[in-house]
Design a protein that fits this description.
Receptor-associated Protein, mainly alpha
Length: 401
């Protein structure tokens, strides 16, 4: 939003102009930070109530974040002032929520706030990891390099997560479709065939009796099952928000066949990449471990990294802590130990990150090739069971006639 103002500076001189801000309070704060005494102040254009957007799910996507940092790095490299760069990026953003955040950050910087501190006011958009990398760039005078490295890291993480999610979405969608179709058949088709089979008086095989029993249950008590599943889903969703629930959920994810290994290697790659980036950025090893624990995305790994942080404070090595936990494979621990002993931990972590990223890529690619025939076989078996249990007795009945 734009606001026109008429104010007086500390020398008593009158000033007029326009300030951009996400809201009136932010605009007033910006002018006060400039040491101006506001005389008149109003919005350039007021949006009517019916024209305002209702924001239910305000969020900033990962892709928007790394594109923002990449474009900001390019503008700063071109010697465009930081505040001007931020406002230019805000104006071109299609996400209204993100636009407000960038405008607010620009106004804070314009008012004298450090860029990293301004970013930290929006933790949902800018992680602690990003804030600390920007802070190291400010302190070292290499902000453009830090922003470029941060954009590279976030982009690589975005595509890695997208690939893992893509590998999980396809089988989940197929299984969901199969379950829905199966339920529809049991609820809408089987009951009409059941009457024919029962009237025939023939002895039904156990598989047919089982299908009929399941069909009867779904028709008569399916609504209770549906309510139970919804209630269970709500309970799990709420329980995951608790400390114990999150630990149980994150532990269970790592034990899922095939996908658990993918997640484990993804977390290993993320940890190595995070720690490498922070150490290269000049962040202390203790603070780097703390930040890596905050952004790792899994409570199991987070607890281990916090434990390693505390052990480093007492003079012990990182590898001595990692070796106590099975989620860190021997190869990873050996490489970290070598990096600590040689004083080249950041270089070793870079190689580990590259290695585990390739491991995840290979597993996901192989899984994508194998999952289609496995699903086809599974669907064929499901159809075969239904055919054998229901349609074979009907064919036998027709043959006897």
């Amino acid at each position: 939003m734009k606001f026109n103002y008429f104010a007086r500076n500390q020398k008593g001189e009158l000033q007029t102009g326009t300030v951009e801000a996400p809201n009136q309070s932010a605009a007033i704060k910006t002018l006060q930070d400039r040491k101006l005494i506001i005389i008149r102040f109003r919005s350039v254009s007021e949006t009517p109530v019916f024209g305002k957007k209702i924001k239910l799910f305000d969020r900033v996507k990962r892709k928007e974040t790394f594109v923002f940092f990449r474009q900001l790095a390019i503008l700063i490299e071109a010697d465009v002032p930081l505040v001007q760069s931020l406002r230019a990026l805000a104006n071109q953003s299609d996400n209204e929520h993100f636009k407000e955040i960038i405008f607010g950050t620009a106004n804070d910087v314009d008012g004298g706030t450090a860029f990293s501190k301004a970013l930290s006011k929006n933790p949902k958009a800018f992680s602690n990891f990003a804030v600390n990398l920007v802070k190291t760039g400010e302190v070292s005078g290499r902000l453009q390099e830090s922003l470029t490295y941060l954009a590279d890291y976030l982009e690589k993480e975005y595509y890695l997560i997208s690939k893992v999610r893509g590998a999980m979405v396809y089988p989940a969608f197929i299984l969901f479709t199969f379950v829905v179709v199966g339920v529809l058949v049991l609820v809408m088709v089987i009951p009409s065939l059941t009457a024919i089979l029962l009237e025939s008086g023939q002895e039904l095989p156990w598989s047919t009796k089982l299908v009929i029993a399941v069909s009867d249950f779904l028709v008569n008590w399916g609504w209770i099952l549906l309510l139970g599943l919804i209630g269970f889903a709500i309970f799990v969703w709420q329980y995951k928000k608790t400390k114990q629930g999150r630990l149980i959920w994150d532990t269970a994810k790592l034990k899922i066949p095939i996908f658990g290994k993918i997640l484990q290697k993804t977390y290993l790659a993320r940890f190595a990449d995070n720690l490498n980036a922070l150490i290269k950025g000049g962040v202390s090893i203790i603070q780097s471990l703390n930040i890596s624990g905050q952004v790792i995305g899994n409570v199991v790994f987070q607890k281990i990294l916090y434990q390693a942080r505390d052990q480093v404070k007492s003079g012990r090595s990182i590898s001595s802590t990692l070796e106590q936990h099975k989620v860190f494979p021997p190869l990873f621990n050996q490489m970290v130990r070598t990096g600590e002993q040689s004083g080249k931990l950041d270089a070793i972590l870079g190689k580990l990150s590259s290695f585990y990223n390739k491991e995840v890529d290979n597993i996901v690619n192989n899984l994508s090739q194998l999952i289609e025939p496995v699903l086809i076989v599974g669907l064929a078996l499901g159809v075969a069971v239904l055919v054998f249990a229901v349609f074979m007795p009907i064919y036998n009945l027709a043959g006897s006639l």
